[in-house]
What we know:
This protein has about 130 residues and is an all-alpha fold. It has a single domain (about 25-125), classed as Hemerythrin-like (Four Helix Bundle (Hemerythrin (Met), subunit A)). Helices cover about 60% and strands about 0% of the residues. The protein is built from four helices and no strands. Helix 1 (about 25-40) packs antiparallel against helix 2 and helix 2 packs antiparallel against helix 3 (about 80-95). The protein is globular and about 40 Å long. It starts with about 25 loop residues before the first helix and ends in an 8-residue tail after the last helix. The mean pLDDT is about 95.
Amino acid sequence: xxxxxxxxxxxxxxxxxxxxxxxxxxxxxxxxxxxxxxxxxxxxxxxxxxxxxxxxxxxxxxxxxxxxxxxxxxxxxxxxxxxxxxxxxxxxxxxxxxxxxxxxxxxxxxxxxxxxxxxxxxxxxxxxx
Length: 129
């Protein structure tokens, strides 16, 4: 599987978990972002069923994107179309995966994508929703 390059200029937290540097200051979105971090981290837990962990992450991603996009639409956020495309591109990569596809490259991609997305793309909507 070929994954797109993520140009992430930010440090990737290890252990991989949400911290206050990722706050967008909307309580529901910050909680959902925490859940996404937990979902990606769960992919690294060899004691858990990888198919269950991946399915849970896939659901969390779609649910979060739906909530975030609805808030953008309601607020008339100017960059909603561009933001939705970025989300759709990530879902297009994540959705077809099965547990047997999850490897170090996929996990690295997901970690970097989430950090870069929040700190670059999501931070643009702070105070605008």
